[in-house]
Design brief:
It is a single chain. Helix content is 34%, strand content 11%. It has 201 residues and is α+β, with helices and mostly antiparallel strands. The strands form two sheets. The protein has a three-stranded antiparallel beta sheet. It has a two-stranded antiparallel ribbon with strand order 1-2. The longest helix is centred in the N-terminal third of the chain and has 28 residues. It starts with a helix and ends in a 12-residue tail after the last helix.
Length: 201
Amino acid sequence: MSRTFILAFGIFLTIASSITGLVIIPNWQFQALKPVVKLDGTRYPEVYFGDQARGREIYIDQGCIYCHTQQVRMKGYGADIRRGWGTRRSVPRDYLMDRPHQLGTQRMGPDLASIGARQPSVDWHAIHLYNPQLTSPGSIMPRFEYFFREVRSGEAAPADAIKVPQQSNGVTHIVPTDRGRALIAYLKRLNQSFPLPEANQ
């Protein structure tokens, strides 16, 4: 048996075992997972629709995944629950409707798996995106001003305008653009507080 054959066989075996362990077996384990339906008809998780779906695409487009995760770790593996980032650990069922999932790789900012439950206010999300320093002093998050139209002192503020807590350059209110509204709708949708039996195991 030549060394070339042994090397080729070793490479094939490595690739085959990796695909089996990382793709085929997990897919087989979780293929039976379905959304949970309560007696009152409430389903979890639900499909993203309308602004939520568009906002998810914007979230991906803006590269939010590079600074934020969407995975609450279990007790004993970090301080996620103690910090209030979630009420329970994340489980595979939480990601049934995510194609692709947005688990993230590092946390330069807080985990967003349940940001919709922690911060249900549209105004908070708008102000935070417009200028993170206004809601989270010391934040290193960049400003997403281009998702908003600025209303300056002396201009009439429309009905959907959001008051800026600290005026800067004469800006008194901001109005989310269509993309800004969609991104906020997606962030408000992120909520992993639904009770799932496997999350307590």
